[in-house]
Sequence to fold (428 residues):
Amino acid sequence: MRALFRGLVLVFLSFLTICAFGSEFSEKLKNLENVVSVEELKSSDFFSEKYLVIFEQPLDISVPEAGTFKQRVFVCHKNYKAPVVFVTEGYAADYAESANYINELTDILQANQIVIEHRFFSGSAPDPLEWDYLTTKTAADDQHAIRMAFKDIYKGKWVSTGISKGGQTCLLYQMYYPRDVNATVAYVAPIARAVEDGRHEPFINNIGTKKDRKKILAFQKEFLKRKPTIMPLMENYVKAAKLTFRIPLEEIYDYCVLEYSFAFWQWIGNTEKIPSKKETDAKLLQHMLVVSSPEYFSIEGSKSTLPFFYQAARELGYYGYETESLAKYLTISSAEGYFNRIFLPKELQGDFYSQTSQDLENFLKTKAKNTILIYGEFDPWTAAAPEVSENTNIIKIVNPRGTHSSRIKSLPQSQHESVINTLNGWLK
Fold:
């Protein structure tokens, strides 16, 4: 009886210790190098604990006098022996705060999960914003520092992953630090070669069936033809939404139409959703706002993604627009140079550094290991997918009729099984 009583006392004292000082895992987090705060978050039952961990990171490891910034990292703990899914987010990671957020790889691998918010986004933005320190290399340095911080906590297998720009980010991370992880899964990750790359336009002109493309073009032409009557409706929308632009709204109208085909194939891909010519101006505008809203081109709409547009203009690249098929109806004479004029203030405009994309493409062709690339057949970003057929350590999968939302769970059964079996083989 006394032994039982002593056991209960020890359990109670341990409970008091946890309440007062936090769990064993939270204490490990607090003791990590360069951690300035640890905040417990609500979590689903999938994980045992979840935390927002703030790291103090150097703006540039090669320039110590440049100073530091605070970076948000969301850590979801399952158990010490489980693998780690290392999400190298390319944008803000606000979504990761949700108690229900579980990356699909985390579920597949029954893994721990670490989500790194990209520097210069949301709660990981330096103050002031010193744009020269926003590069693919400095971002990779951030990820490496956090990977090294956790090396003594999680000693199992690590899988880096990201979607779209996050996919680019995890591929670049592997290029700069090839020994950090055991495998990489990059979703819909483009590697553009210029600010206005040039490969997307012909790709769009060959997506789907001839009937699909004809229907999309017909809608674009109809929207341009009705400009005199739809423009007042768009003006009312812009005014109500309090949107402003760096170019005249009349030109923004044209760019909404040019963007339409790209955005349609990127996210929708089903031409049955396109309204007919018989519909009213209001119906046509409503559809355009869903697919290609003027908000995308506005100063206000791009505020949260300005760091991305800066990176696209300097290192990551973007896409251009084909205007020939619509030239008869457009106000603008050419879309060339649109990206900088629309998305960036003059002080952030500069030269594009093409060496980064060249280095990354070469790395993927020759040296990348244990990498899975997933793309969508209809996604225009697939036009900038790398050619990796000669590298036997990379699997590149194109989801039939898939859009930018292509994931492992959306793949046909044979492709799905191939990905899972390959990944499990790499992580044995």
The first helix runs from residue 2 to 21. Confidence is low (pLDDT under 50) at residues 1-21.
